[in-house]
Structure formats: structure tokens, C-alpha cells
Design goal:
By secondary structure, this protein is of the alpha+beta class. The protein contains 15 helices and 17 strands. The chain folds into four domains: 242 residues, GAF domain (Beta-Lactamase, 2-Layer Sandwich), CATH 3.30.450; 137 residues, 2-Layer Sandwich (Beta-Lactamase), CATH 3.30.450.40; 82 residues, Signal transduction histidine kinase, dimerisation/phosphotransfer (DHp) domain (Helix Hairpins), CATH 1.10.287; 97 residues, Histidine kinase-like ATPase, C-terminal domain (Heat Shock Protein 90, 2-Layer Sandwich), CATH 3.30.565.10. The chain is elongated and about 155 Å long.
Length: 597
């Protein structure tokens, strides 16, 4: 049976914060195992049955070589170098989560060494989550231990491990450089001791040593700067993840991410946007955050009106358009001469350098960032440094899209339920109308029958004959209405017959006048000659009345309603079967409303 996990917002946030704190305390490679133990402990607090964890760092993607750190039930197993792990490397390249619900169900689908390792520890299920430097694996003694709804949490955990590995790499670099610096300082001290005796003969050596020392100091300062930037990146991503978990407004979240991006890269302005597609499947950009670089009243008004909803850019023949079409980073340290440029409007702030980087979700481009005017220009190391930042942006947009799809599904379900309720109501009304119409029809049969008998008895000159004829006409119209009710309730068969549209329109004119009221001018334009069609008279009258009522409702302030009957001027058609189809008479309804005073 699937495992039910306790993943409410409060406990999940607390778990991620504890793991994040453990990552920030990493000072040496051995601390990675402590972070993994902390992670297993926090997952157990969330009732997620993770019994083992492995972090696979990609050493050589071509050879399938990994450096694997393993922890089993809070016991450190150790680090191993594993060649030939091409399956894991392939999953890492694809960037897709892989979930094995039940190892027993796969039979011989895995290598023998792999199955033996799992059988030795009695493991039954696992999930692989790729991140920037490798794959995070969670394993369990239970089947189906990691359902999809908690895998979003695992992706957040994987991002934290990615940041931790970056931190370790930076710490190792700093440690190595410090060691080299200490060695150099020892050499300098030795040289200084010798210089006291050889000051005149070793002046040139002293200058060389001093230069070496300056170089080492510059390297150390550069390393410290890199470490400071890594800490800034880690803090920015942690803050963004916390805000997203707390459901902070998306616009505010991306605006803060953009500010962090500009600070990290020392850029002047930029944007973060989502890549969408037109009905023709052409990509275009919709911004979630963009620097306000308006340079006059017109652009300032445009920005204030449109920026909150997101600006849309559809020109693909541009620097940022090349990012969307090629799905690759674009570096332009001389935009004015770059063949991909399209120029900038007059008054636009200078564009001295540009970097555009796409970010992805499941190998599909979902957005991009664009930054401009870094004094030193842009290069590949900047792109590599921003990899965790881009993963975070992609995860946020993917989650936002999933939320939009969920809301649309809920709205569609609510509409379907409403249609079902309306259908049930109409069915009930139809049954009621059918019963009433059936009983009323019986009464009309008596009225119409006696009217006919009276007309047969009375002389044509009898003054009462006109009244009886009016009774008969009213009875016939009432019969037609009851027939429509029976049709509506599916108890009456439609009976089409040849009718004159001119006559039908004339008979309904008095009823229209009563329906539309005095504030609407009715104009009737009949055909010059009789216009015959085959239709059910009652249904035809009802259709015309419905259109007249709709026109009346559309003119609450009054207006003009024109009803015109005419025949199209097209020639008769003769299909392959030889039958000639003449043009059919048509009704035209036009109405003009009166504006409010």
C-alpha cells in the first residue's frame, strides 16, 4: 500500500530549514554525511519511510564514473568511486525523476550487482532525483514509499544538496589556496632571513618573491570574493524557497529574485520571464519581473500600465529571441555589432553587454533570464555559477503552471456540475410541462370541437359567427402552444408542413407588439411574394418569438427592431445527383439601442 506522509506546510518548511542550516554548516567533505543523516531524520519526522540515502556526484559523464556517498539508517557507509554507472548518468542528463515503486515487480530488469546491494539491505523501492552535479537517491524497505505528491519536496532537498556541493567545492578551493599561501609565506620568511645577510646580492630575488606574494594575495582575495558570492546565492535561493513555500505573491517573489540576480552578477538591469507559445507553437516571452528603465513620460506610463500583468515580447529576431529559438545561452559583450541584434529605440539606456540564459523543466524550456551591462562582460563561468539559481526559477514556474492547471481543472469540473444540475432541472420542468400540456390539450379538444359545431350550425351572415371564429383561432393557437410543450417534454412528434413565412409573420405581429413594449419601434418588411418553407408551425413561431425577446432584452433603454424577410440572390445549385436546390427564404433581425441620457 502507498505510504501516507505528513507533509503539511509547517512541518515541511521546518524540515527544509533544518536541512538548509545543516548545509550552511558544511566546512569539509565529511560534513556531507552529517547533512544526509539530518535529511533522513527530517524525512522520518514527516513520516516519509526513507531508510537509506545516496548522493551520486558526476565525475566523468562519458565513462559513467560517479563518486557516491551512502548513509544507511543514519549510519555512514562511506564514499566509493563507481565506474560504469551509465544508467544513472543518463537519468542525470535527462533531468527526469525516476521512481521504482517495487523492485520485486521488475524481476531481472536491473544488473546483478545492483540487485544484490538492494537484496542485502532488503530494500524494496527507491526514487532518483537529478540535480546540477548529480543524482540524489532515496531508498526504503517498503514498497511504494515515495508517492508523486511528496516528490516535489525531494526536488527541493536535491536543490539544497546541489548548493551544499557547490559550497564544498568552494571550501576545498579556498583550503587549497590557503595552504599554497602558507607555503609561500614560509618561503618569504626564509628569504627574509637570507636577505639580512645578502641584501646587496639578492635584491632582484627579493623583488621576485614580493611579486609572488602579491599574486598569492590576489588569488586569496578572489577566492574570498567567490565564497562570498556563493553564500549570497545560497541565501537568496533559501529565501526564495521559503517565500514560495509560504505562498508569497509570485510577482513579489520574482522581483526579489531579479534583484538578487543583478546583485550577484553586478549587472545594471535585467528581467526574468516565462516562455509561452502561440497557437502556431511559436515561443514568446512574458515577464514576471523586469527592471524599470523607462526614459520618458510615454515609456513610464506604458511600464506602469502593463508591467504588473507582465510585458510580452514576440520578436524572435533579437538577442533574447535567440535564447528562445536555440534554447541555449546567448553572450553578447558587443551588442552593437552582434548579428543577432535588432537595435534599441531612441532614448533607451545603453546596452553595452548582454547575457540571456534559458531554464528548463523536464528538458522543456519554461523561461529565461536576461541581464545587461556588467562592467567586466559575461562569460561561461557566470553561467555555471548561476545554475542553481536557474533550477530554482524553473521549479517555481513549473509549480505555478501546475497550480494554474489545477485551478482550470477545478473550474471545468464546477461548470460540468452546473450543467448537470441545469440538465436535471430542465428534465424536471419538461416532465411537468408535458403533464400540464397533456391535460390542457384535452380541454382544448372540447373547446375546438364545440367551436367547429357552432360554425357548422350558424349561417355565414350570423353576427355571432365572427366571435366563434376568434374562439376557434385562439383554440388553435393554444393547441400549437401545448404541442410545443409536448415537444419540449419529448412527448410530441414534430409535424412539419408547408407554411407561408409572410403569413406566419403577420399573425405574430400583434403578439410582438405586446412583448417588446412601447419604448421599442418595430419595423416589419415582408417579402414581395409568398415565401413557402416546410417546418413545424409551432416551432417556427417559437423560434421567431425567442429571437424577438432576446432583442428586447438587449435594449433595456429602448431602440429600433427591424424584421425583414428576403431570399438570397445566389443561383440554384445542382449537385452530382441532379437534384436542384433553390435558395431558401431567410429572416434578418437588426436592432439599434438608445444610449442612456
Amino acid at each position: 500500500m502507498p505510504i501516507e506522509s505528513k507533509t503539511d506546510n509547517h512541518t515541511t518548511i521546518e524540515a527544509l530549514l533544518n536541512i538548509s542550516l545543516a548545509v550552511q554548516e558544511m566546512n569539509k567533505p565529511a560534513d556531507l554525511s552529517k547533512v544526509m543523516q539530518t535529511c533522513l531524520s527530517e524525512l522520518h519526522k514527516l513520516n516519509i519511510p526513507a531508510d537509506a540515502m545516496a548522493v551520486h556526484q558526476i565525475i566523468d559523464a562519458e565513462q559513467g564514473t560517479l563518486k557516491t556517498h551512502r548513509v544507511w539508517q543514519n549510519k555512514v557507509i562511506g564514499d566509493t568511486i563507481e565506474p560504469g554507472r551509465h544508467g544513472l548518468v543518463r537519468r542525470w542528463k535527462e533531468g527526469c525523476t525516476f521512481y521504482e515503486k517495487d523492485l520485486n515487480a521488475r524481476g531481472g530488469g536491473y544488473p546483478e550487482a545492483f540487485r544484490k546491494r538492494f537484496e542485502d539491505f532488503h530494500l524494496m523501492s527507491f526514487v532518483d532525483i537529478p540535480f546540477a552535479q548529480g543524482i540524489l537517491t532515496l531508498q526504503s524497505l517498503q514498497k511504494q514509499a515515495f508517492p508523486e505528491h511528496i516528490q516535489v519536496l525531494f526536488r527541493d532537498v536535491a536543490i539544497l544538496f546541489a548548493i551544499g556541493l557547490v559550497r564544498l567545492e568552494d571550501l576545498e578551493t579556498v583550503e587549497s589556496q590557503n595552504k599554497a599561501l602558507q607555503e609561500s609565506e614560509q618561503k618569504v620568511r626564509k628569504l627574509n632571513e637570507e636577505l639580512e645577510q645578502r641584501i646587496k646580492t639578492r635584491t632582484k630575488d627579493l623583488q621576485t618573491a614580493n611579486q609572488n606574494l602579491q599574486n598569492e594575495i590576489a588569488i586569496r582575495q578572489s577566492a574570498e570574493k567567490d565564497l562570498h558570492q556563493s553564500n549570497m546565492l545560497l541565501e537568496g535561493l533559501r529565501h526564495a524557497q521559503t517565500q514560495y513555500i509560504e505562498k508569497v505573491d509570485t510577482k513579489t517573489l520574482f522581483e526579489e529574485l531579479l534583484q538578487d540576480l543583478l546583485n550577484l552578477t553586478q549587472s545594471e538591469y535585467g528581467f526574468i520571464g516565462e516562455v509561452l507559445h502561440t497557437p502556431k507553437n511559436e515561443p514568446y516571452l512574458k515577464t514576471h519581473a523586469i527592471t524599470n528603465i523607462a526614459w520618458n513620460d510615454e515609456t513610464r506610463a506604458f511600464y506602469e500600465e502593463n508591467a504588473p500583468q507582465g510585458l510580452e515580447f514576440v520578436n524572435l529576431k533579437s538577442l533574447f529571441g535567440s535564447v528562445m529559438t536555440t534554447e541555449k545561452p546567448v553572450i553578447a559583450n558587443s551588442p552593437a555589432t552582434d548579428p543577432r541584434r535588432t537595435g534599441i529605440p531612441e532614448g533607451h539606456p545603453p546596452l553595452d553587454a548582454f547575457l540571456g540564459i534559458p531554464f528548463f523543466s523536464a528538458n522543456n524550456i519554461v523561461g529565461m533570464v536576461g541581464i545587461a551591462n556588467r562592467k567586466q562582460g559575461y562569460d561561461q563561468p557566470i553561467i555555471d555559477f548561476l545554475a542553481p539559481f536557474l533550477v530554482t526559477c524553473g521549479a517555481i514556474i513549473e509549480a505555478q503552471q501546475n497550480e494554474q492547471r489545477r485551478e482550470q481543472a477545478e473550474e471545468s469540473l464546477a461548470q460540468s456540475e452546473e450543467k448537470l444540475r441545469q440538465s436535471q432541472k430542465m428534465e424536471a420542468i419538461g416532465k411537468l410541462a408535458g403533464g400540464v400540456a397533456h391535460d390542457f390539450n384535452n380541454l382544448l379538444t372540447v373547446i375546438n370541437g364545440y367551436s367547429k359545431i357552432l360554425l357548422d350550425v350558424l349561417q355565414t351572415t350570423d353576427p355571432n359567427r365572427e366571435f366563434i371564429e376568434e374562439i376557434q383561432k385562439a383554440g388553435n393557437r393554444a393547441s400549437a402552444l401545448t404541442n410545443q410543450l409536448l415537444i419540449f417534454s419529448r412527448r410530441q412528434v414534430i409535424q412539419p408542413e408547408v407554411v407561408d413565412l409572410n403569413q406566419v409573420t403577420t399573425d405574430l405581429q400583434k403578439m410582438w407588439s405586446r412583448l417588446i413594449g412601447e419604448n421599442i419601434d418595430l419595423k416589419l418588411r415582408l417579402h414581395a411574394r409568398s415565401s413557402f418553407v416546410e417546418a413545424d408551425p409551432g416551432q417556427l413561431e417559437q423560434v421567431i418569438l425567442n429571437i424577438v425577446i432576446n432583442a428586447r432584452d438587449a435594449m433595456p433603454q429602448g431602440g429600433s427592431l427591424t424584421i425583414e424577410l428576403s431570399t438570397p440572390t445566389s443561383r440554384p445549385t445542382r449537385p452530382s445527383n441532379g437534384v436542384i436546390f433553390n435558395p431558401v427564404p431567410m429572416f434578418y433581425f437588426r436592432y439599434t439601442t438608445r444610449a442612456k441620457a
